[in-house]
Write a structure and sequence with these properties.
By secondary structure, this protein is an alpha/beta fold. Helix content is about 25%, strand content about 15%. Strands 1-4-2-3 form a 4-stranded parallel beta sheet. Strands 5-6 form a two-stranded antiparallel sheet. The radius of gyration is 14 Å and the shape is globular. It starts with a strand and ends in a 14-residue tail after the last strand.
Length: about 130
């Protein structure tokens, strides 16, 4: 099974992930991906973003466990990151390809689900319900 890059974030720094192929395959919650953000990313990087939506963490996990689907970047809830790591479904980030990684606020660096941010980068935070 292809190991995935998983992030609680999408950032322009991920251009390096898809640079060789010219396409970034993003697996994200439905209606979370701003069309304006995607258009800006594509214009600035020349990389086409293909978005596949899911409706629950369980759905996302099941699809990837069943063989993936060629996703480069997945955006689960923070509470599911440890599960993905324990199952060996993701790879550690190559921080040399994320030059702005040092700009993450200290309080967001050592989160319980990913101490030291080895597998994730923050994108947005919020609570619903």
């Amino acid at each position: 099974m292809k190991r995935l890059m998983l992030a609680t974030a999408m950032t322009l720094a991920y251009a390096a992930v898809a640079q060789a192929e010219g396409v970034l395959n993003l697996y994200n919650w439905g209606d979370y991906t701003s069309p304006d953000l995607l258009a800006k990313f594509e214009k600035e990087t020349g990389i086409k973003v293909t978005v596949t939506d899911y409706d629950s963490n369980d759905t996302a996990l099941a699809k990837v466990e069943a063989g993936g689907a060629g996703f480069d970047l997945v955006v689960p809830s923070a509470s599911f990151v440890k599960i993905w790591v324990e199952k060996g479904l993701i790879q550690e980030l190559d921080l040399s390809k994320l030059p702005h990684h040092n700009n993450i606020a200290p309080e967001w660096m050592n989160v319980d689900y990913d101490p030291g941010r080895k597998f994730t980068v923050p994108w947005q935070w919020g609570t619903t319900g």
